[in-house]
Give the backbone structure.
Amino acid sequence: MPGARANHGVIRFDGGLVARPASATDVEPKWNKLFPLGTFHRSDFPGGTLKLDRTFLSAMLDNWVKGGRKPKPIDSLHRGDSGEDGLPAEEKSARGWIEDLKLQDDGLYGLVRWNAKGLAFILGDEYRYLSPSFHPDYVDRHSGGKQGPTLFGAGLLNNPFLEELPRVAANRTGNEPKEHAMKNLIIAALGLAADASDEAVIDGVKAL
């Protein structure tokens, strides 16, 4: 089904998030909305329906805290599962990390820190959206009991399910003119010298 992926009971929930420019040198993370409030219907949801209310999202937040508040990876196309065969390690590596969670009046937010790979994808306009990966009623590996909603991470992709979510937020440096800031951001993401020519920047983007 377009826009929907599930594997071993894990729901990859496509969230509608579009990229803003970001810099590899501007490392401050940015809050991104991961889940809105509402009831959603899809064939791979338990019973065909999933209700994202404050109770569900609060339980997800609590389980993340209980698990030690560990950062959750963001990969490309939900390919970060180390058990998935036939893919090179490069395709499974993280593009960024969700370092914190908070529940707001309108949904659950994640504090995202993009790395150079993730920024290059965003600045190159290759991937525009963020899709959280979670289980609605995950089994606690210590107690064996069901602990409820559990977040595993997210994936960068281009086929959103939750079109109402806002654009991906990533940082942009300083007060430079917009066109200069964009070039500097791309240079930083590509790892080029600060005085790189326009031709070198274009060649670097094409090489991606």
